[in-house]
Design goal:
By secondary structure, the protein is of the alpha/beta class. The chain has a domain of 154 residues: Class I glutamine amidotransferase (GATase) domain (Rossmann fold, 3-Layer(aba) Sandwich). It is 24% helix and 31% strand. It is built from seven helices and nine strands; from the N terminus they run βαααβαβαβαβββββα. It has a nine-stranded mixed beta sheet with strand order 2-1-3-4-9-8-7-5-6. The chain is globular. Bound molecules: zinc ion.
Length: 244
């Protein structure tokens, strides 16, 4: 059992308006993602969603969150800028952030990346093959050289992100497109992982490999103990500074 404290955030709107999504995720997408983490041995997994007060991301909840996962799509603009600021600040202080699928356009991801997050897409039930390009990286633990999903939405390059610190997966789609589908960055003390799959109409968050990658990513993004960034006038030097 891991003593990590994870908060799984979901927009939780499609499930109320699109029967196809509710059929795949009767308890909501966030609950399926959370179940995958619980199954993987994370003892403390809570969920939060957009229509809760403060989007379920109060100061108190964020203070008790080591890693936050984020799935949003149609309502990115309904996320309060104050909460975005609060989440981004926590990331800079060391909270891990796992951004899933259409979260590439979330305010918090764009803020932390500094780019538009734009990409190409197509909904055509395509086969997707993920290739591991960072063998030995903790996020690939237990994952083969490649794995596949029988049908997903296509996301294709160009993907407007800063060059990742580490690229972990690339995806190939039946229609010929490729995509950087698993990418890591550090911002301040916080680790960020973007993971592509998870269109709302597919049962992607029940897939064994997808669940394993998210579990690995949550563990990888856990905060690291150590000295905080200490802003000060370092008036007294460590060693004497000889003049002349
Ligand atoms: Zn999608």
């Amino acid at each position: 059992m891991s003593d990590l404290r994870v908060t799984v955030w979901g927009e939780y709107r499609h499930e109320h308006t699109n029967k196809a999504v509710a059929d795949v995720y009767p308890k909501g997408m966030h609950e399926a993602i959370a179940d995958g983490l619980r199954e993987g041995g994370i003892a403390s997994v809570r969920t939060a969603w957009l229509d809760q007060p403060e989007h379920g991301l109060t100061d108190a909840i964020l203070a008790e969150t080591d890693v936050l996962t984020w799935w949003g799509h149609q309502a990115h603009n309904d996320v309060d800028d104050k909460i975005v600021e609060r989440v981004a600040q926590r990331v800079l202080e060391g909270m891990g952030l796992i951004v899933l699928h259409s979260g590439h356009h979330s305010k918090v991801f764009k803020k932390l990346m500094g780019t538009s997050g734009n990409l190409q897409w197509r909904e055509a039930d395509e086969r997707e093959i993920f290739w591991t390009v960072a063998s030995g990286h903790p996020i690939t633990d237990g994952i083969d050289e490649h794995f596949e999903l029988p049908a997903e939405e296509m996301y294709g390059e160009p993907f407007d992100i800063p060059q990742p610190d580490t690229l972990v997966f690339i995806s190939w789609f039946q229609g010929g497109n490729v995509f950087r589908s698993g990418a890591c960055w550090q911002r301040g003390r916080g680790k960020i992982f973007y993971f592509r799959p998870g269109h709302e109409t597919y049962p992607t968050y029940y897939d064994t490999n997808v669940r394993r990658v998210i579990l690995n990513a949550v563990k990888w993004a856990a905060p690291v103990a150590g000295e905080k960034i200490n802003v000060r006038n370092a008036k007294v030097p460590l060693a004497p500074i000889t003049k002349g």
